[in-house]
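User: Can you model how beta-D-glucopyranose sits in this protein?
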Amino acid sequence: MALAVAAERVAAEFEYSKEDVNRGVQAFIQQMDEGLGKKGATMSQIPTYVTAVPNGTEKGLYMAVDLGGTNFRVCSIQLHGNSTFSLTQSKVAIPKDLMVAKTSHELFSFLAKQIELFLKVHHEEHYQSHVERRASYVGFGTMRDENIFSLGFTFSFPVQQYGINKGTLIRWTKGFDIADTIGKDVCALLQKEIDALGLPVRVAALVNDTVGTLMARSYTSPGKQGTLLGGIFGTGTNGAYVEKLDKITKLKNQSADAGEIDDSTGEMIVNTEWGSFDNHMSVLPDTSYDRGLDAGSVNPGIQMFEKRVSGMFLGEILRRALIDLMNDPSVPLFSDDDSSRNDISSTTTVASDSPLYKQWGLDTSFLSITSGDSSYGLKATRQALNSDYGVSAASAEDAEAARLIAGAIGKRAARLSAVAIAAVVITTKSLESSAPDGVVDIGVDGSLVEFYPNFEEYIREALRDVPQIGPHGEKRIRIGIAKDGSGVGAALIALVADKKMKGTHETTRSTSFGGFMASFFGGLNRTIRYRA
Ligand code: BGC
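Assistant: Here's the modeled complex, given as structure tokens:
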């Protein structure tokens, strides 16, 4: 079979039609509702107890760390109080063996060590003076230190939150698998390792990256309306949005250990955990490559939406599709049998140790490279195949085949992302409740939206396919990158937590997370306006 025909056949398997999009949106809305009503639904719809968003006037120096994918980031953030901030950060790849370590200690002590390194490099004076004070401290009990950094911990996995800095891990995602951590309070795990190193840091707040993104977007782009949704389209995918309190009916049956709820804004940010939309596969598209990927993953049957949308998985889907074609003797992919090749001077070979033969061997960045490759003869694609994947002398036809399939996988991911966005916009009635030409604001972050060519345009195309949104509604949806959103968002919530602690010290008033968030934001900030 000619290579181009075979590639088109595979690409067609990833088509996700207008009808599919609309079926997806209906199911998404239904599964969101189900999650608001009960625990244990496919979409967790986790109440965050955050009942308002910032307005840009917040100030102070905070630390934030971000664990959620391939990298661990440590940063310090100076909030200037005028919607701007300065950020210093360091980033380190998380060693693969720590992602599947035997004990939580192995991972969390590594994280604490990175915080120590960061402090030594970027806040040396602060760090040294703390070390000296500790050395000269002769009192009893915990040393009081006014210079302790408050740290917001962005932990981007499904967590049942019980308070501003307390929450237990429900399940790992994105390739992490440390059984010992499930059900444990991740803030306590981190604090323990920070204390073991004697660092001047208090884990003040626990934040999902989507909530951080929503907060950060609201901080940096205050306008008449607040931000509706914070979405991550990166290694993983997820969204947090502003929901009406009375729709979160499961809060009525909450257990005694759940945080107290403030109802003054009538709203709360909900972490959807949409990566697990439709785990039972009622509407999600399914190819043999998706099935193979799922079966070979550490969590088969879970995060089924994420496995079709996010950066951790798209490369692996493409790798499986390419391997299938390479194994088909009638298809001349990366082989010299292609009679249409006119350059017979070089031999196409795939190295026996090529990453293409290894699970997760193909990085999603390859999809971005090839989809954005407009060079003559797809030179950039062939170069990447050669230098990163051990495919020497790939022909233009080879590169075109890889590009075609990669494009189809990326486009399906973007159209699925639109399903999530459309569902949130429709179920919150946001288009109806803002002025006829008003804007619905969405903050996004992650390598896919940032780097995958035309990702947003594909999302928009699919949004226009949904009748409740249509071309007019699509134009009113403003999608903005909230760069470093999770760090800034975590800092903002650490700021809130700090005030809470000081408030508690000064007045011995004990305030709930929700209550405090509301009293803090209620005083300083606009309320979020999405009411019908
Ligand atoms: C996690 C979410 C997170 C998302 C994006 C998912 O795998 O379950 O909590 O927000 O990845 O990082």
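A couple of observations from the model: The first strand starts at residue 46 and ends at 47. Residues 504-532 have pLDDT under 50 and may be disordered.
User: Helpful, thanks.
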